[in-house]
Design a protein that fits this description.
The complex is a heterotrimer of chains A (290), B (220) and C (534). Chain B is mostly helical. Chain B has 7 helices and no strands. In chain B, α1 crosses α5, α3 runs antiparallel to α4 and α4 runs antiparallel to α5. The chains are: A mainly alpha (290), B mainly alpha (220), C alpha/beta (534). The complex binds adenosine-5'-triphosphate (2 copies) and magnesium ion (2 copies). One magnesium ion (MG) binds next to α13 of chain C.
């Protein structure tokens, strides 16, 4: 799963705006209490991924996270004893003691797991649709050396991976196969580590002759804001504002324990719709993107 | 919700402090390239062993980097390793937790070098590797709680740690195996490069007397 | 005359951990606007001298340094490589580790940003460097997806961004195909002529850059052996160091014609003045005789290596090999040529079973020994002596370096070490495949390698060599295959393929109109013509 440039409004937006939009969606999911709102946010993230042409990647992350979400939800059921509506008495389970399966714990566990999935998906969207170079350039404004090290590290990951592959191939081309079994494996791993540091030396030399040693704090130019930049930034701010408002008022409260106490489904639905509309609006601007 | 805000602020502060420390040491381009390469190597280790659940040499690499390079670079290797490996695994609320935890592992490595006087004892270091694996797991499991909605209870915390325990044990065992197999060799490679990176500019007098230079005045 | 832009004054330098100095009492002064070529046998100290000029030696490699290096008036004793970089742009041997950022645009902007230029100046500098090198279409590409040749150009762009007064280049054309290599030299010549940029270039294939050079500096064992304009250098080389002669110079020398010419054009002019006209009328016709043909079933069965309709499609969708049909008989010596990205390396990887065809079949009748393109991939141990047997090391002339760490060798020595590793086997291999084995090698090492390969072939081993060097191809191969876009477009005896093209012709063939490929044969042609002409 890596960033790749694609034709979509989200990819066209600058990293600051696109990143803020993804983060705002994740924050909204973290703050959301009502199941209707949470489900709406899940669908919104998936729709956003589809709009950005990366649905497959995001869905794969969600699938990858799902077992973990399930485990967390189940363990929650086993451990938390705050619910009152007992559905079944499971009896004595060794490390947990007397366990009762309650409706509240089940609902809470499910929401917990769902929230985990939504947040993971929102950040998966962030990973595949927001240009890391652009982000690092932002970071450079704050600190040149750390940002440059981060840039270099991200660039070196694929380089070292292909180095390792080639060294292994070269070993197979040797007449003696580079030794037997485990010894050969060891030699290759050592060579990869040693070769990597050799490369570090070369890269350091390059940094030096490109004048890094006298580098000043990066000045980032005033790049004009495109309509995608503006749209995603505005959307991110609106999502954040709505999230805060929903908590403060509160608009769609939901408390699982001791018995489920939920705000009106109507107000929750309105909030959910508002989130979806605000979040997806910037993705509609497809002029010039086709 | 306040819990999430608090933890993220603390994490933010920890990471900012770590990176400020690293910047304050004014790393030369050699150290910088070395940090980046080791971070990439750590990330690569995590990616290469992704099929085995939670077995990864990353923690060992970070620990040993801190051991050889010192605290600030060790922290940077750990934090950047977490950051760049998540470009493949996906960023998320867990990213700052992992960055901080691995950063801490790098600092522990530097501390261990102090304690052992750089002799790298085999078995006790293996134990440190295992402990670091468990500590890393305990910290990063907390990231799951950000999704708890509201301030998590002690019981939930216990639940999450319990759910993560098998993974953490796998991680710790993997660390020990990796260290016993590669640790000493890896440190030897690192030390060789560290020695090479230290500029030894012994300015020997020319074998023949230098003729006074009529061509250029010395630069001001 | 203006102050020298680069000046070395009695520089003696020993690498950290080395016993003998790599530069011995070197003094050199390069004036503004000169085009200097650094020549010399492998391990002569060319790369070391360029590193000293960029300040990396001694600030970066440690070691013992005596004397002074001044770049644009800055003494490298007081000013580090970063400050020297304001005056000198450098390009070193391995392009892979000289590109540090993720996109081409960021890469070109990096040196400018480091100099503290404002955003507008950076944008302009990037645009100009990209246009000068013809890499404008690559600006938004990721650097990890570029081919070797493209990477080399991007690295050069980064070295040239900001218009340095002095450019230092270490074998910049070693991995480029003949077309791209010639283009690069032309670009440097244009920079030199139009902008007065001073150029110092280390190169083994002198025939390519002599016509552009003002001066040739020869380094032997770390000391300057010759420092003269090209004609005098050639005259010197004829006596003192014949392996440094360019092919035409050797041909003229063999035919007893003086003075030696510095390039093809001058050689033609000299011959015409003597009444020898070798224009293409008598040249071998390279028409249908070199069309690739389908191997017969019998040939295929007897072959040491056979490709049967091999296709290779990358997962991204790009097709690298398109239906390659080929049979190489035991004892046959084949040269594989073609531009960067034509698919030569991919073909060799298929032969060794490192890649599987997406369609078709590859068969071999035994072990395939393959030298991959990057010699660094073969270095597994901590001492040269552990990498290969003593006899194998002696065969490539590295027996005196057994205690050295393999990563501390010069470029050409590393290439020879990799070769020793690959050719070091108890029993004979059925096929030997070599991917650009001559990069960084001097002519003497090439000749030794050619002899060894001929000996292997005489023993029944099929030899297949991918190379950008037509001279080497002419020396080893009895059959040359030209690859374009993953398909052979010419396949025939070396004499017809290498004589009949513009770019894949040897220098001798260009002068003699295709009558001879190698200097010795060319000299014979000239002698015969001279008997006729007067
Ligand atoms: N890092 C190093 N440590 C020790 N010795 C070195 C190092 N690099 C090069 N040398 C030695 O210094 C000498 C000069 O090497 P240099 O790389 O300058 O040669 P070169 O002329 O560039 O050769 P080539 O054409 O093969 O690239 C060689 O004997 C080489 O073995
Ligand atoms: N790792 C890779 N990812 C994507 N494309 C690749 C990769 N390696 C090679 N290619 C592509 O495959 C094609 C053939 O590459 P190959 O290395 O066989 O060329 P070549 O003829 O050996 O070139 P050169 O003379 O530059 O070595 C090129 O177009 C190249 O871009
Ligand atoms: Mg060299
Ligand atoms: Mg190739």
């Amino acid at each position: 799963m890596r960033y790749r440039r694609r034709a979509s409004p989200l990819h066209a937006a600058r990293a600051a705006a696109g990143g803020a939009w993804c983060a705002a969606l994740a924050a909204a999911a973290l703050a959301a209490e009502h199941p209707i709102v949470l489900v709406a946010l899940a669908l919104t993230v998936l729709a956003g991924a589809a709009g950005a042409g990366v649905l497959r990647e995001v869905a794969r992350t969600a699938a990858w996270m799902a077992p973990w979400a399930l485990v967390v939800a189940l363990v929650n059921v086993l451990v938390v004893r705050e619910g009152l509506t007992v559905l079944a008495r499971l009896g004595e389970i060794p490390p947990f003691g007397q366990v009762d399966l309650t409706l509240e714990a089940l609902v809470y566990g499910a929401l917990f797991g769902l929230r985990l999935l939504v947040v993971a998906s929102a950040f998966a969207l962030f990973t595949v649709a927001v240009d890391p170079d652009d982000l690092l350039r932002l970071m450079r404004r704050a600190s040149v050396r750390s940002a440059l090290a981060a840039t270099l590290a991200t660039r070196l990951v694929p380089v070292l991976a292909s180095d390792a592959r080639r060294i292994e191939e070269a070993r197979r081309c040797r007449a003696d196969g580079g030794g037997e079994g485990a010894a050969a494996r060891m030699a290759v791993l050592r060579a990869v580590a040693g070769g990597a540091l050799d490369r570090a030396l070369d890269v350091a030399a390059t940094l030096e002759v490109r004048g890094y040693g006298t580098a000043r704090r990066g000045r980032v130019g005033a790049r004009p804001w495109s309509r995608h930049d503006l749209a995603f930034a505005a959307s991110a701010i609106a999502i954040a504002a709505l999230t805060v408002a929903a908590r403060v008022v509160p608009i769609a409260p939901f408390a699982p324990y001791p018995v489920i106490a939920s705000g009106g489904a109507a107000s929750a639905s309105v909030l959910a719709a508002a989130f979806a509309l605000i979040a997806l609006a910037p993705l509609v601007a497809r002029r010039g993107i086709a | 919700m306040t819990w999430q805000l608090t933890t993220f602020s603390i994490l933010g502060l920890v990471l900012a402090a770590g990176f400020t420390w690293y910047e304050r040491t004014h790393p030369s381009s050699k150290v910088l390239a070395m940090v980046a390469t080791l971070a990439a190597l750590a990330a690569l280790g995590r990616i290469a062993f992704a099929p085995l659940p939670n077995v990864k040499p990353t923690t060992d690499i970070v620990l040993l980097s801190g051991y050889v390079l010192g605290g600030a670079p060790g922290f940077a290797v750990g934090a950047l390793g977490g950051l760049s490996s998540n470009l493949v695994f996906g960023q998320g609320p867990w990213t700052p937790w992992q960055m901080a935890a691995w950063g801490l592992v790098g600092i522990i490595g530097a501390g261990w070098a102090r304690v052992t006087g750089r002799r790298l004892p085999r078995w006790s270091t293996a134990v440190i590797c295992a402990l670091c694996g468990l500590m890393f797991g305990a910290l990063t499991n907390l990231s799951t709680l950000t999704a708890a909605g509201g301030t998590p209870s002690l019981a939930q915390w216990g639940a999450v740690e319990a759910a993560g325990l098998p993974f953490d044990i796998a991680h710790a065992v993997g660390n020990v195996v990796f260290f016993l197999a590669f640790g000493p060799a890896f440190v030897r490679v690192l030390q060789r490069y560290r020695a090479r990176l230290e500029v030894r500019w012994t300015d020997a007098a020319p074998s023949t007397p230098v003729i006074p230079t009529p061509l250029e005045p010395p630069p001001a | 005359m203006s102050a020298p832009v680069l000046e070395l004054e009695r520089v003696t330098y020993t690498y950290a951990g080395a016993e003998v100095p790599s530069l011995r009492d070197v003094s050199l002064s390069v004036a503004e606007g000169e085009f200097v070529v650094l020549a010399g046998r492998s391990a002569g100290g060319k790369s070391t001298m360029l590193r000293a000029a960029s300040g990396l030696v001694p600030h970066f490699h440690g070691g013992t340094f005596a004397g002074h290096v001044r770049v644009g008036g800055l003494d490298t004793r007081e000013h580090g490589p970063a400050e020297v970089a304001r005056i000198a742009g450098s390009l070193f041997q391995d392009p892979e580790s000289q590109v540090v950022l993720t996109t081409v645009r960021a890469e070109l902007a990096f040196p400018l940003e480091n100099r503290g230029h404002g955003p507008a100046a950076v944008a302009r500098g990037v645009e100009e460097a990209a246009l000068a090198l013809g890499i404008a279409p690559l600006l938004d590409r990721a650097t990890t997806e570029l081919s070797g040749g493209e990477l080399q150009r991007v690295a050069l762009g980064a070295a040239l961004a900001g218009r340095p007064r002095l450019v230092l280049l270490d074998e910049p054309t070693s991995q480029l195909d003949p077309v791209a290599g010639d283009e690069l030299i032309w670009l440097l010549r244009r920079l030199n002529e139009e902008w007065g940029t001073t150029i110092v270039l280390a190169e083994h294939r002198l025939e390519r850059c002599l016509p552009a050079a003002d001066r040739v500096v020869v380094l032997a064992d770390g000391a300057i052996a010759c420092d003269a304009p090209p004609p005098e250098f050639l005259a010197w080389a004829a006596g003192a160091s014949p392996e440094l002669q360019t092919p035409v110079a050797r041909m003229f020398h063999g035919a007893g014609i003086t003075p030696p010419p510095t390039g093809v054009k001058e050689a033609r002019r000299a011959l015409r003045a003597r009444g020898i006209d070798l224009d293409a009328e008598g040249a071998l016709d390279a028409g249908d005789t070199t069309a690739p043909r389908h191997p017969k079933r019998r040939e295929r069965r007897a072959a040491a290596l056979a490709f049967d309709g091999v296709w290779h499609e990358r997962r991204g969708g790009a097709t690298v090999l398109r239906g390659v049909d080929l049979a190489v008989a035991p004892g046959e010596r084949v040269a594989l040529m073609g531009r960067n990205g034509a698919g030569k390396s991919t073909m060799l990887r298929h032969a060794a079973g490192l890649m599987a065809p997406t369609r078709g079949k590859v068969t071999t009748n035994g072990r395939v020994a393959l030298l991959l393109q990057d010699p660094n991939d073969y270095l597994l141990h901590e001492h040269v002596g552990e990498e290969a047997s003593a006899t194998a090391l002696a065969a490539v002339g590295l027996e005196h370096l057994v205690d050295r760490h393999p990563h501390d060798l010069s470029g050409g020595q590393r290439q020879r070490l990799a070769l020793a590793i690959v050719l070091d086997s108890p029993g004979p291999a059925a096929v030997i495949g070599l991917d650009e084995p001559t990069r960084g090698m001097d002519r003497a090492a090439k000749a030794t390698l050619a002899d060894r390969l001929n000996a292997f072939a005489a023993g029944g081993t099929a030899v297949i060599v991918a190379t950008h060097d037509p001279e080497f191809a002419a020396e080893v191969a009895d059959r040359v295959i030209l690859l374009a876009d993953g398909r052979p477009i010419a396949d025939g005896p070396a004499t017809s393929v290498l004589a009949g093209g513009w770019y894949f012709a040897t220098e001798t063939a260009r002068v003699t109109g295709g009558r001879a490929l190698l200097p010795d044969a060319g000299a014979a042609v000239l002698r015969a013509q001279e008997v006729v002409a007067p």
